[in-house]
Fold each of these.
Amino acid sequence: MSEPKTYYITTPIYYVNGKPHIGSALSTLCCDVLARYHGLLGRKTWFLTGTDEQATKVHEAAVAAGIPVEEFVDGLAAEFKQTWTSLDIHPDDFIRTTEPRHTLAVQEFFRRLQATGDVYKGLYEGWYCVSDETFFRDSDVGENPKCPNAECGKPLQRVQEENYFFRLSAYSDRLLAHIEANPGFLQPEFRRNEVISFIKQGLRDMSITRANTGWGIPVPDDPTRVIYVWFDALINYIAAAGWPNDPDQFAELWPADVHLMGKEIFVRFHATLWPAMLMALGLAVPTTVYSHGWWVDAEGKKEGKRTGGLPHPTEFAAEIARVSGCNQAIGVDALRYLLLREMVFPGDSEFDTDSFLRRYNSDLANDLGNLCNRSANMAARYCDSRVPQPVEADPIVTAMCADSVTAFHDAIREFRFNAALEAVWRLIGSMNRYIEEKAPWKLAKQGETRAVDDAIYHCLEATRIAGTLLLPVMPTAARCVLAQVGLGDEGAAPSFVTDLNWGGLEVGSVLPPPEPVFPRIDLAAVQTAPAQKEKKLVTDEPAESSIQVQEPERPEYIGIEDFLKVQLRVGNVTAAEKHPNADKLLKLTVELGDETRTVLAGIAEMYQPDELVGRQVVVVANLAPRKMRGIESQGMLLAADVEGQAILLRPETQVPSGARVR
Ligand code: MSP
């Protein structure tokens, strides 16, 4: 049997006229996730990204910065590489269009098309937009020579010059026939329809050179001209795959399985010009060309280099780490998750820092955090920190897992990354409800040990499946989740072929001490400063900090007399219930010697009411009573703050109710 073809995935190559931002990060992250996903399915993958350096606008940016252009592009290409590494994005190859392998391929492509007659010389008269690096005809432009692209609108250059043309008009029928015969070629479907109408409006031959003003790939044997940057840039996909000098590598990689990019460079360039260029040379066209939408502002306008409104991804991840208190790698994973969950593929989505942070808390700290922490804590408490023996597989839970796995695969294959994550979160949500319903702490009190073991096994096993599914998106955090269910790094490399079925956990295996992965962000303490938001998040001026957090006050010493003012006493919890009007509060009845108090505590996310009844707590007994959501609290419980989670304090051994603490 012959080896399956290497799965070849590409991002657009990025103009090096500015730093990366979370728009460029989106295409690159999608490709990294696809590479990891197919790798987990056992396929050999090849993931290419790079930088587009021969554009007029890149030259203009270097001139404006007063830096020699070679030095300018070297600096920004390094910045892009470093940014991807910082986001745990690991391409197999990074191509720069100033590299000899690329220049050589572009010139050879040009020569071969000249030889077949598909490239010919003619007079070009029309308009050119440097910002969009696009030619426009008189009929595209109104009275006022401004770029017809609504996102741009910049003044156009009038061009009248001898140029080389590509015979694009000859390929309309073949393009339409290919699109029709291959429904998976252009995705999503509604954009395929845009391409069909664009081609049906009539394709004209296209100018593919410009006058040589000192930057660009020279036309072979005609140094007065350079090759138009789009004609040059698209060839990166085959140049990096070994064309024309490494036929073995080329045969292994080409055609690309997926070209992925934003919508503005889909119709004209990736879905029309590029396949026509390949057809002209008799090369196979890519299997799938997919375009996603943009990060837009509240008015639906594209955010990016032009508006300066998108954060630098590395800085954004560092800010998430800083405001949540998690480590850098987890901050990166949180950003990876949030980018793919907040973008509603394949459309546009508004970029809003606040909603990213809110989602961090709700999805990562709460939903995923709760499932993980509660499963691990219950296993530690009731199962001696081992994977317990289930009674039998609960068909409802196994079906939930299987549905989540199927929905995840389906969504990734359609490039709906947000939907893939939603599928995992449906499982997480169901399992959090399962814990509430089964209430293993109640079963434990009733001495139902087999039922406790059974419920906890189901929680751990579902957590394992959810954690495995998250590997392509959050590689570090998913490994932490798997470590919580006893699958540390020392085991076999994870696989989507074998590890997504029910029953992967080994009964009796030892679990490590529970350790929360995503600490909560104290949103009240985090203020996004609207006036600074735009300025501080811009990509070209490295921001000190994009999110402002109130600095904690400096500790001041207190005298013993101050400490003695606080009366601390041990109490017995005799009853507990949820506060009827506040999700986060529990209402406890606490006996302090012969006194009975009502104490409200913000611990509903960490403790079930029933598990608290009968345990001892430490109470601040002389705190002024305070009404919270309609109920008066007559004291406060002491708790350790572990990454935002409250862990209640209690005496080491049972002590008389009401005992003083000093
Ligand atoms: N150099 C060309 C691509 C040549 S590919 C042969 C180019 N470069 S770019 O730097 O301008 O854009 C690269 C990618 O970044 C595009 O896919 C574009 O859609 C994406 N984004 C730029 N701003 C964006 C948003 N605001 N939102 C999402 N992606 C956006 O075009």
Amino acid sequence: MKVFKTVSSLQKYLAKIDKNKTLGFVPTMGALHDGHISIVKKAKKENSFVIVSIFVNPTQFDKQEDLKKYPNKLKHDLELLKVENCDIIFTPETNEIYTNNIKSDSFDFNGLDKVMEGAFRKGHFDGVGTIVKKLFEIIKPNTAYFGEKDFQQLQIIKKMVATYNLPVQIIPCVIYREKDGLAMSSRNAHLTDNQRKSAPLIYQTLLKCKELFPEKEINIVKKFVKNEFENNKFLELEYFEIADTETLIHYSSKNKNKKYRAFIAVFAGTVRLIDNIALN
Ligand code: AMP
């Protein structure tokens, strides 16, 4: 496993890779858990070489305190990746990527960035677009893997790749969960015992929505979700939406030709948890 901190040393190494081999890329912000590792395993199966980036991208944080408290577990991350026989790790410092100009580019994501995470986290997706485009340009992977845990991010990256005609195939990866259904996230470590015990309600509610969806109107499903969280002492609903899988436009009535997904964001104290599920 080769670990690089600079763009030049990484590119020098990548230049030696046989052009007939495929390079799969897994971008991460570190503090790796089994969800990340499931993506690395998939990438390993599907490519000749796998590169994982570990970079906490400052421009995608709307709150500076979130950036400051983002866990740094590099040593542990590298140990996990070694077990997976990961080929290459890229773990640059902020200046290596942003050369003293820590700013986002602005993107036209055709409205995909205006709803849900984009509405509640201003500038977040411009930050995501900026870092992912930079990393694609540095690494030039054949394939890149993104988790459906961040489904809106996945759609935005697909849109960016299409807009700029970037020569990379985007591969979606299913959401990896704890045994009790809570979607794995580096933020779960910040939950208190009571918050952690309550948190499976998020996925349980999504499963009930999936059950209700064929028979009930969208506003009934939304009311159901609101009620589920109203009386919970440890969880506070930020948003719940049912949206078209492709456009992410919210609807209040159903069209049987469309594919829908339910999206949820919940606060457990100051910890923000997101999840989503396919409804049909
Ligand atoms: P992050 O380090 O949080 O930026 O995540 C890196 C990648 O891992 C993103 O594509 C995420 O969507 C994905 N990811 C994070 N958590 C999970 C999970 N529980 N299941 C599947 N993918 C995940």
